[in-house]
Amino acid sequence: MPSITPILRGLLRPTSPTTATTPTPTATPPLPPWLGHPTRVFLTTLKFVAFTHLIWEYVISMAPASGPSMLPTFEVLGEWLLMSKVHRFGRGVAVGDVVAYNIPINEEVGVKRVLGLPGDYVLMDTPADEGGGGGGGGGRMIQVPKGHCWIVGDNLVASRDSREIGPVPLALIRGKVIATVRPFSEFKWITNSMERVDSPAED
User: Fold this and answer.
1) What is the predicted pLDDT for the residue at 35?
2) Is 112 an annotated catalytic residue?
3) Which CATH superfamily hosts domain 62-189?
4) Which of 77, 130, 138, 173 is the most buried (most CB within 10 A)?
5) Beta-strand pair 148-152/109-116
6) pLDDT of amino acid 191
7) Active-site entry in 112, 159, 162, 176
8) Per-residue pLDDT reduced to its tens digit, 115-131
């Protein structure tokens, strides 16, 4: 009778465990540093909004032009004005510059040309034409007080300006118009073509 010992040894021999092959996960590209945690996204958005606000409020901004008071420099409609906010409150503004300002008698924003700065003497009325007509005034002069400026529209007959409301505080100046933009068609710099004439030296 054959011995059962070899059979039992074969049955009781330990078998090596079967190792399952685990698939290697595909590496995902890393997220940008400004994405990820919600707090980081919120702080990044907050920084961007604050930076945009600072640029818009204190460096440069744009606004549409409307109305006939600055013809022919600006059209009645269709132009956008590029404003330098560095010139807020009249900083660096010279006679001949075009500025945007808060109209003191309402909540609107106007655009006019500076014709007088503190200490300058300006004509209070609309000048008469060469024939003596044109609705000109009596040639009254006024000295622009400290902290104010005298602003007038290029289209005198259609402009409500310092001739009616008087000198405008420099604190109401929002900025200096440096260019006009027609969307997708034209960009034009606004330059000051006026030159200050000094009084002749006395002998």
Assistant:
1) 58
2) yes
3) Umud Fragment, subunit A (2.10.109.10)
4) 173
5) antiparallel
6) 87
7) 112
8) 999 999 999 887 765 44
